[in-house]
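Form 7-S
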Amino acid sequence: MRWVTASTGRRGAFLLGAAPLLVLAIGYVIASAARHADNPADKILPLPGAMATAMAGLLFEADPLSGQFLFWADTLASLWRLGAGLGIATLSALLVGLVLGALPPVRATLGPLVTAIAVIPPIALLPILFIVFGLGETAKVALIVVGVAPFMIRDVAGHIGALPREQVIKALTLGANSWGVILRVALPQAMPRLIEGLRLSLGPAWVFLISAEAIAADVGLGYRIFLVRRYLAMDVILPYVAWIAVLAVVMDLALSQTSRRLFGWAHAGAH
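Output:
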């Protein structure tokens, strides 16, 4: 069998993908049990039962001060910030990336500026964003936009700029003008690339969100993690981290399926 041409099938791919997670979970249970055998009060690797008990209070019991179910309030707050940031970044990447990629004079003028912004570490801009926008929601959303939009713009612009020249010439020969080329030739081919760029940006977007919530927030997944770390509450931190991973994976799968359903032609040659 040649590994480079091996096909696993959907069920095989699922089992292969689940195997490392299962091994990781079993390894954690074994390590946690070993630590608690030596020290029953160990807080570094809590037992699964302790994590379930701690999370039950956040999931099903309203907070006496706020009256909210903290886990769900944190989740909704973080998802709103993440959705707003990614939505603005995606729309910006589509509009600016299309123009930069399809119009060489615009690319020559604004391309260096986009590149300069893209290479600035977004976390370094966080104090500036807090000063300009205050400690409210705007600064957190802005950090996600500043963090992922330049990468997505460059990706879309590079993809459009690399389209075969023959496609543009044929469209112009058939009577299209510049905007016609953008809308009829570049836009359809930019959409699957835009979704792929959005998938790749999910990880950095979560990093920027958690960073912003850790510094200035009173609700959110990142806020809760950094709040309970003061008490070494790993029985809350680990489930929260796992929940963030689950949300990110669900988003990634949803985007992947959306791209395959809407732009199946772009995935025709994929394994």
